[in-house]
């Protein structure tokens, strides 16, 4: 572990100030389940941790008529532990429920999962399909950015010096909507996704009126697969249109070979998981 300083921010403004003063070697500390490992293994040069878990606004989660706002300090277990969220924002509940294990879920956050920008991050496809918008605070005030635009590459994001994510907002899905998330891992738990996938869709009868697809671990960053939506929106949900969306997901995937899976296996899984989540989300939309 490298020697570093720790500062506990009590407000958003104080966190911005501390991050600005700390410069490029200052890091936000949310759950710490990624960043403490990085510091311990000296994978990043970090001189200051700015703890954001003592800022009231960041520890709030509100599920209102317009949507769900998750503060960037809220631990994962509170998300999937809420029955209304599990029902209405199923993809997010499913993803947060499998990240790490119980100990990790007691600390880790979806803001940390997003900012860390791992191509295999489990909550990011769910955040994409549920239309997440991040509120970012920084030296020039606040700005809103769709989560689809936050990650730019492995470990890279758009956050500027002094900026951090305050909360993520998910608009309430329209009536007759459903979402689902799945991943493939070789073990039953505590593993990094070979591929993960999520979808959110809205039905009018059996016609798909809206759909959003997310795929992880098949490119340098999580993919927002608009071609899969184009294959199915405005059409009836049939075996043929589901197969067309799955084929579009396979096509969009540009994975690498590594110790977890081959290109061929990952492209195949992108299609299989897309079909799975689509069928599951449709059942939920019908219910
Ligand atoms: C044993 C173990 C198992 C794991 N299993 C999984 C898994 O199954 N799936 C998975 O996806 N991940 C997994 N992870 C990785 C990690 O738990 C998740 O990525 C988690 O969501 C990170 O959240 P955190 O709050 O702990 O982030 P932190 O570690 O606090 O931060 C991660 C990075 O994001 C930055 N950051 C954090 N919050 C903010 C913010 N609000 N604004 C700006 N920047 C911020 C930090 O500075 C740091 O660079 C695992 C980790 C461990 C140790």
Short description:
The protein has 287 residues and is α+β, with helices and mostly antiparallel strands.
Topology:
Layout: E1 5-8, H1 12-22, E2 26-29, H2 35-40, E3 48-51, E4 61-63, E5 67-71, H3 76-80, H4 83-88, H5 90-98, H6 102-105, H7 110-116, H8 123-129, E6 133-138, E7 141-146, E8 151-153, E9 156-157, E10 164-171, E11 177-184, E12 195-204, E13 207-216, E14 223-224, H9 226-230, H10 239-252, H11 263-286
Parallel strand pairs: 1-3, 2-3
Antiparallel strand pairs: 4-5, 5-10, 6-7, 6-10, 8-9, 11-12, 12-13, 13-14
Helix pairs in contact: 5-8, 10-11
This protein binds flavin-adenine dinucleotide (FAD).
Residues 27-35, 37, 52, 72, 98-100, 104, 107-109, 111-113, 115-116, 121-122, 159, 164-165, 190 line the site of flavin-adenine dinucleotide.
